[in-house]
Amino acid sequence: MTLIAQPQSMHFAEPLALRSGARLADYHLAYETYGTLNAERSNAVLVCHALNASHHVAGVYEGQERSEGWWDNMIGPGKPVDTDRFFVIGVNNLGSCFGSTGPMHTNPATGRPWGADFPVVTVEDWVDAQARLVSALGVDTLAAVMGGSLGGMQALSWTLQYPRRVRHAAVIASAPNLNAENIAFNEVARRAIVTDPDFHGGHFYGHGVLPRRGLRIARMIGHITYLSDDVMNAKFGRELRSAVGSDYRYSTQEVEFQIESYLRHQGDKFSEYFDANTYLLITRALDYFDPARLTGGNLTRALAAAAARFLIVSFSTDWRFSPARSREIVKALLENRREVSYAEIDAPHGHDAFLLDDPRYLSLVRAWFDRIASEPAA
């Protein structure tokens, strides 16, 4: 059965107080829902998205080819998160470029696009905005909140900001904060964007240009970190493009290796659909996330507020969000005597594994959600 997705938008007139001290008024959130909310309003699952994803989590848009949701292998009728049993909500975060209010939209104070003037947003701000939307949909308590990577950080933050509104949380391929190496990768990507001559201090919309060169480089940098060394070698190795032949061209400018061609292709695609200011905002939100910041770096004390039951999943070859980072979360939760299921999947795909069709991973999530579905509503 094909799930047909219907994009929706919800307007909020009440200002949202942000962690930066700014207040965002008169904003809207793009979202999609799948399945049916039951009479008890107890079967809602919120899915939080990662850096370049959106509210289009599952299904397809009618009449549009290649429009599958970014987690369509995970969510839908008969899938691990079964929309025949659960009411699934996908929300596009503030500051994104896929429908929710962001830098591309008009700043009511100036009548021009926000651009670089859009306020800094954090993971905690996103969770506050999501909580408002969930409430507006008539849901007081979520059966589960789940996400991978940056989405996993949001799921974790939900359990701390709204501990009584979340029964279960799935934190997948994520971390309690970014290490210095990850922050460094994000900064190099940001510098590629802001030093693009077409960036114009973030106000490029009025100049009729896009900082595509910077976005291409940012995406190429990011994509390298999403794949494992094994996958890169297996997929590309040192293969030359067929046009090169058996001899090198010894050129510093031309694309000769298959991996070069692949990265440039990914960069070109990304630069056509993603917003540069959004990239800066979201990577900075990644950098800022650190629930232990207010407890002197003590993650156990930081997670003491959580009351949910947890599923924590990591992947053996994910070097950007390594299993060791997931085990930090598990340890802190166990020290707080919280119920935690932990799985470390031996998968070759690197960080991208949380999006792929690994049977063990999908079966694990299915079994976890089967248990949730069989529990009586609190």
Short characterization:
This protein has 378 residues and is α/β, with parallel strands linked by helices.
Layout of strands and helices, then pairs:
Blueprint: E1 8-12, E2 16-17, E3 23-24, E4 27-34, E5 44-48, E6 75-76, E7 81-82, E8 87-91, E9 106-107, E10 112-113, H1 123-136, E11 144-148, H2 150-161, E12 168-172, H3 180-194, H4 212-226, H5 229-235, H6 258-273, H7 276-288, H8 299-302, E13 309-315, H9 323-335, E14 340-345, H10 359-374
Parallel strand pairs: 5-8, 5-11, 6-7, 11-12, 12-13, 13-14
Antiparallel strand pairs: 1-4, 2-3, 4-8, 9-10
GO molecular function: homoserine O-acetyltransferase activity; homoserine O-succinyltransferase activity
Enzyme class: transferase
Organism: Ramlibacter rhizophilus
List key phrases describing it.
AB_hydrolase_fold; Rossmann fold; globular; 2 domains; two-stranded antiparallel sheet; homoserine O-acetyltransferase activity; about 35% helix; Rna Polymerase Sigma Factor, Chain: A; about 375 residues; alpha/beta; 10 helices; single chain
Task: Describe, in plain words, how this protein is organized in 3D.
Residues 43-356 form the AB hydrolase-1 domain. Homodimer. The record marks 320 as: Important for acyl-CoA specificity. It is an enzyme of class 2 (transferase). One of its GO terms (cellular component) is cytoplasm. By secondary structure, the chain is an alpha/beta fold. The chain has 2 domains: 7-177 and 289-374, Alpha/Beta hydrolase fold, catalytic domain (Rossmann fold), CATH 3.40.50; 182-283, Rna Polymerase Sigma Factor, Chain: A, CATH 1.10.1740.110. Helix content is 33%, strand content 15%. The chain has helices at 123-136, 150-161, 180-194, 212-226, 229-235, 258-273, 276-288, 299-302, 323-335, 359-374; strands spanning 8-12, 16-17, 23-24, 27-34, 44-48, 75-76, 81-82, 87-91, 106-107, 112-113, 144-148, 168-172, 309-315, 340-345. The strands form 4 sheets. It has an 8-stranded mixed beta sheet, with helices on both faces. It is globular, with a radius of gyration of 21 Å. The two termini are 31 Å apart. The model has no long low-confidence stretch (mean pLDDT 92).
